[in-house]
Amino acid sequence: MQPYTADGLKDEITRRLRVDEGLSTHEASPKDIYYALAAIVHGEIMPAWKKTQQKHKEKKAKQVYYLSMEFLIGSLIKSNLLNCGMLGQTTEALKEMGFYPEEVFGQEQDAALGNGGLGRLAACFLDSLSSLDYPGHGSGIRYRYGLFEQRIIHGNQVELPDYWLKDPYPWENRKEEEAILIHFRGDVHMFKKNDGSLEFKYENTDKVMAVPYDIPVVGYQNSTVNTLRLWSAEPYFPLEGDATQDEDFYHDLEHQHSIEQITGFLYPDDSSPEGKELRLKQQYFLVSSSVQNIIRQFKDNYQLPLSRLPEKVVIQINDTHPSLGIPEMMRVLMDGENLGWDAAWKVTTKVFAYTNHTTLSEALETWPVGMMESLLPRIYMIIHEINERFCQDIWFNREEMRDQIPRMAVIADGQVHMARLAIIGSFSVNGVARIHTEILKKQEMRDFYVLSPGKFNNKTNGITHRRWLLQANPRLADLITEVIGPNWIRRPKQLISLMKYTRDRPLLEKFSAAKQANKQALAAFIHQRTGIAVDPNSIFDVQIKRLHEYKRQLLNIFHVIHLYNELKDNPQLDMIPRTFIFGAKAAPSYHLAKEIIKLINTVASIVNYDKDVKDKLKVIFLENYNVSLAEKIIPAADISEQISTASKEASGTGNMKMMMNGALTLGTMDGANIEIHDLVGDENMFIFGLTAEQVMDYYRHGGYSATEIYNTDDRVKRILDQLKLGEFGSQEIEFKDIYYNILSHNDPYFVLKDFEPYMETHEIVERTYRDSFSWLQKSVTNIAYSGKFSSDHTIQQYATGIWNLKQLKE
Ligand code: 4GP
Q: Coiled-coil regions in this chain (predicted)?
């Protein structure tokens, strides 16, 4: 890629505006500028993209395909500019042209094609694959509507559709000529061939076209551009004169609409049977298009027999959602390519690898047999056969495990168990943080671990330091480069050299100044969004993540209520001003989570306007939390709240992002917090609360009483009574459901149990913050050790430990 100068860019933007839109720069809006800029960047990317594809073909290198129902890529303009080496010049050029760069970049709507951690991880992994020159691609769904847009109205979450494709999306290339035909339903016929083997043919299937849209995944200044291929469902129009097709049917508008629905929404509401079937359709749509595409590319690129597929292809499935890829691969190999069962199974089980992202039971997918059988008859037959053979194998070869068969069978209790299918059909099963993998091995997947211990491995998550530090926090990134030079950008572990400077006062002051400037910027943003003035000298205490009971936003807001109660009792209370910042979306059908959002907003509406509180306490709920908002908040965080009930958060990745930006973690010994703790120790983070062992012990043996705490801790009683009676502040809003959930269900996430240690730890936080030098040392220590959590490191581990993939340097 030829680097542009700022002047060159100005000329090119001006030229494009004139040629494409007939506009002068004076007439152009920020959106016009954005599109001109995106076209220039796309033009820069195209040749490198083509070259990367050629290189992969020529070198006949092994490829990884990352299959995921979610890719939470956010906005691409800045990261593409950064990775193309054009961000600095562009910023300069835009300013000189009289535009605010952030306003221009802000014209791009986030591609919110994911819900949270799992989807964002997939996006970070793609960035690292390209930046490290690995041949690795994403395969996902091009939802026309991404994750809903959240509005807060009278404190309540209201969901609006996220029509992110309203304006043209400049990064995608439609590849109609590479469309793939997908079959649903229909009749399966079995024939015996001359050699005695069986042949399967399908008739009367519902046919759907999967049309790929390719998005370039640009590596960091290395000319590698991989592909994120997103599939869109479109009606299939048979060729004219094909007498077997009923024209009227296929032109029926309702039918067309139902096909387009397949890729209509991310996560359709699955509370109704129809909705659930639509999700199953989405899953099969993704895997069928991906697997057929992979086989086609393999044939085109390698000219090898399919038995050698595992030498050239590995498919990583992101949670169980794409695990139908396993029977789909069997189907393609057997029915399409004439391999026998044993040969096909040998290939399949050497190609698939599975990552688990959660042990929450409600997330362990199962599908009713009836639904699977009618929607995907051939796939169901194959799953049935996989199950039979698996159960028989245990029965005959592992007699000591016979009793476990009902717990391990893929088909049991009238359901198809997707995690079991994923484990059986994969050569690798990994968790996403050390403790998570241990829990999988010892508990959730214990039987499978006993059966095949060698499959199980850990790959602790990571985040791309390019987006989350270099791009999101240029003040800090520039300062780091000033201190230790630029090598950390390609080798993030070199951030550790910052440890040499933790006693250098003048230098630490510079880190402090960068944080302060970021806090000022966020304060300005908050003011513009909410009209509330927050004090940039207060502690910015941040909890941003999906709203879930286990993540315990409730514990956080209980602490805020407690502080508020204290301030009401004693307005002279000596405390460092605090700003509590929340960002969270709740699943539309998750009532309690929405109540918690309402509670946070209610507390905010009281606290922020109470004269007694003055400026000591502010509560900010920023609506519509998404990737772009995270990029604004994270650089300004002082405290990173990672307070899940121990054992519940598989890893967390927000914890890594905030650590990398110099926030101190206030957290439980859960997920990757434990690995942060391994690195920085008790002195540089604030750990509190029950351990995973203790939590699991309570679940197993009981012995915890929430009511007892309610009856003995006056602070807790006061808060809960305020919720129940609606006596909170001057408002008459009751939060009885929260109250009863805690007391009648014995506080399933141990909010009350961890309340006391959480309060104490907050006091320690405050004392620590008063010593600004020591705080800065801790902050820089966190940044220094955060390189280990770059997704570059994680991807290296996947590449060597699971994928057996080589970097393709020039
Ligand atoms: C999330 C986990 O909750 C989080 O701990 C982890 O860091 C992230 O995956 C990436 O591995 N799970 C999901 C999900 O987002 O949908 O199950």
A: none
HEC profile of 283-328:
HHHHHHHHHHHHHHHHHHHHCCCHHHHHHHEEEEEECCCCCCHHHH
Give the burial class of 559: count Cβ atoms within 10 A of its Cβ; 0-12 exposed, 13-18 middle, 19 or more buried.
buried
| Distance from residue 433's CA to the centre of ligand 1 (Å) | 11
Asked whether residue 742 is domain-assigned, the answer is: no
Q: How many domains does the chain have?
A: 3
Q: Are residues 81 and 131 in the same domain?
A: no
Domain shared by 164 and 256, yes or no: yes
Which residues does a 6 A CB cutoff place in the pocket of ligand 1? 115-118, 121, 357-358, 363, 432, 461, 649-653, 671
Q: CB under 8 Å to 570, separation ≥6 — which residues?
A: none
The alpha carbon of 627 is separated from its chain's Cα centroid by a whole number of angstroms, namely 10
DSSP label of 169: -
CATH number, domain with residue 539: 3.40.50.2000
Q: Are residues 197 and 333 in the same domain?
A: yes
Domain that holds residue 32: 1-59+76-108
Q: Measured in angstroms, how far is the CA atom of residue 672 from the centroid of ligand 1? A: 11
What is the CA(357)–ligand 1 centre distance, in A?
5
- Consecutive 10-residue runs of the chain (810 residues): their mean pLDDT? 85 96 96 98 97 95 97 98 97 97 97 95 98 98 97 96 96 98 96 86 95 98 97 87 57 85 82 79 98 97 96 98 98 96 98 95 89 98 98 98 97 97 98 98 96 98 98 98 98 98 97 98 98 98 97 98 96 96 95 96 95 92 98 98 98 98 98 98 98 97 98 97 79 84 96 98 98 98 98 98 93
94 and 167 fall within a common domain = no
CA atoms within 13 A on the CB side of 701: 5
- Chain center to CA of 499: 31
Q: 127 and 90, same structural domain?
A: no
User: Which ipTM score applies to this complex?
Assistant: 0.99
Do 90 and 179 share a domain, yes or no?
no
Name the residues annotated as catalytic. 357, 545-546, 551, 653, 657
Q: Measure the CA–CA gap between 518 and 511, rounded to whole angstroms.
A: 11
Structure tokens at 446: 């214990």
